[in-house]
Inverse folding.
């Protein structure tokens, strides 16, 4: 069986709807948390892979800190997609409005 190897970016871009992208981020974050736990216990990690049955997402990290930063970034992007899906946005207002 041939698997299509792709990066995290390619995997997310292959999803068409916001709900599919959120589900893809959930799957990546879940498997990355498992990989970080395994790397913490074993002390080394050379490659991270996630197989969803159609594609295999493959990424390499130098150390656990790099993986942790990637995980935090993915969680932030996922939250932005959830906010967009639910219709929430951020409104920035100046301090002059609140001084009345």
């Amino acid at each position: 069986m041939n698997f299509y190897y792709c990066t995290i970016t390619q995997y997310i871009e292959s999803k068409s709807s916001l709900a599919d992208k959120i589900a893809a981020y959930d799957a990546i974050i879940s498997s990355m948390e498992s990989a970080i736990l395994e790397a913490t216990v074993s002390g080394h990690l050379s490659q991270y892979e996630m197989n969803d049955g159609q594609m295999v997402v493959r990424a390499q990290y130098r150390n656990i800190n790099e993986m942790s930063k990637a995980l935090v970034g993915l969680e932030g992007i996922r939250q932005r997609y959830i906010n967009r899906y639910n219709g929430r946005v951020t409104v920035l207002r100046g301090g002059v409005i609140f001084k009345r």
